[in-house]
Amino acid sequence: MSQQPPDRSTGAPPPRPDASMSLLNNVMDHALDDGYAEAAARRAAEDRGLPRTLRAKLGLAAGLVLAALVVTLGAAQARTAAPVVAKEREELIDRIQSETSAADELEKRVEGLRAEVGERQRQALQEHGGDQGDLVGLLSGATAVKGPGLKLVIDDAEASDKGGGGPRESASFTDTGRVRDRDMQRVVNGLWQAGAEAVAINGQRLTALSAIRAAGDAILVDNRPLAPPYTVLAVGDAKRLRTSFQDSADGAYLEVLRENYGVRSTVSEQDEVGLPAAPSLIVRTAQPRIAGAGDGGDGTDTAGKGTS
Known about the structure:
15% strand, three-stranded antiparallel beta sheet, 7 helices, 47% helix, alpha+beta, five-stranded antiparallel beta sheet
């Protein structure tokens, strides 16, 4: 009886014990995402191709080259624009100088015309002043005068505070030791009251219509600025002028300024002082009322007043 050969086929292998955990196996086998793996491989290749320190040096060199290029372009543009700016500056300077020269010429012309007008006014005053023409010319400031008198020199205090805040500020003064326009007004009025026949401040002749005012920190006499020290000249009996002025309320006021606020002042008698004529004149004269002439019926005179 024949025998069957033995079956040597092994058949299907037995299943793995963890066959039911395929998802966990996949996570374990592929712990790194493909994209991350690719990036890591590329980085590793770059690191193998070029050292990191060399790469940083190349980046720094590129930045320096770019900065140098920007600076070079800026310098080139500035060099190109420099001649234009210099030319504009020269043109502006020339224009300023030209306008300044024109203003100076106009000022000289105004001064000349003012002097001419004053001279004609003085001539008219002498011609039509009558018997009292000299007296009218003296009182109106139309003629220069010379004679004995007083010399007052008034100056700011040595340590005058330009910032204000002193005891005089409450009385509309901005500084404790600065000479103000009202100070000069009181001095001049005191001299007139003491018997002065003519008064001038820093060579500026005063008349009955002169105004002493302030513009900021400057003192104006007939709209002309004056600078300290202020020299006041008064023509008259020197001794009587000095005594009367110092005994007056205005002389006492000047003494208070000196003692309390440091305003410097000196008074001296002069054998002769000279005062110029006023630069411009406005002379007003009055005529006596004539009974019945120009009477408007209510006693007012409509024709007895004149201006010359």
